[in-house]
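Moderator note: this is an archived Q&A kept for reference. The question asked for a predicted structure of one protein chain; the sequence and the answer are reproduced below.
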Amino acid sequence: MSKLRTAWFRSLAAGTLALSLGAFGCGDDDDGGTNPGDPDAAPGDPDASGEVDISVYCEDCPEGGEVRMEYVAFTNPQGMQPDTLSRTIAFFIKDMTPDHYPFPVIDTCYDFSTEERWPIAQADDRAYVDVGTLTITGETAQPFEVAKQEEEYRDFLFRTHPAGAAYYSQIANMTDQYTLPEEHYTVEFGGSDEFPATTFENAMYMPLITPTSQLDEDPFTLERDQELVVTWDTSETAVPDGWESALVIGFTGSEGPRILCLAQNDGEFTIPAEFVNAQLDRQPNGGLLARQLVTHRTLELDDGEEAGEIEGRRIDFLTTWCYVTNYANPVED
């Protein structure tokens, strides 16, 4: 029986600082599928087999892909932008070189155009695994099947997935049906010739709200050589006991997200001037500032075979409640 440490992170799209880590043993259920978690157990509790291995950090776990579900609200929509949308992406990796990229660190900003770190870095040598259908079911939210893409696809983190790579994606405006706050979500693989049907119960938790900010009312302006102080209200950002959350603050636009900062959810973060300048250089005509309240859990990608070809790789399960605000660049002489 293989074991993979399951990590609860205080930050999103970048595992950041691991505050509590545990390893759950994976076992077969009565249907022949795999159920890597006890739906009634809080994170860090023993699984159904009673096995738990408290670790220190999961940075060296081989990557096995991700399931990422987001609720996005545009605070000042421009042009064709909707008020809200729901989007889900997923992919699964059975082999890659290198086998993982380092996590970013809490209370730090990164320029991902020069840093090779999870989750944006992609190995050139990577092999995807087809898990069959992919279905996500909430406690009261409408179940939905995430569509498998057949053609080459670029996801909203600007990572490219080749044609035939079993990449899953769904974008919809029906946020009130699919991505309800304060709910746990179960993820189910339908199974394929290379991977068995698998159920991950209690795999995801959608937080209540992304903190409102002083930047939400109108498009704001970035100023060269000036730091940007972002403040937010933390009064409605609690998550259940055992779950950790944090803020990811990032600039994005036509070239995708490249400047990302990982902040503790304490109400204020300062983006240094050097990263403001980097964004002004990259997006001279303005862009978007995204603030994401994120929960993150990892579970094992394991094909369940005695001498399995796929085991010990982590799947990152991420849920995000995101505010997106338009910003303008100053007119320079």
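Archived answer notes: Residues 3-328 form one domain.
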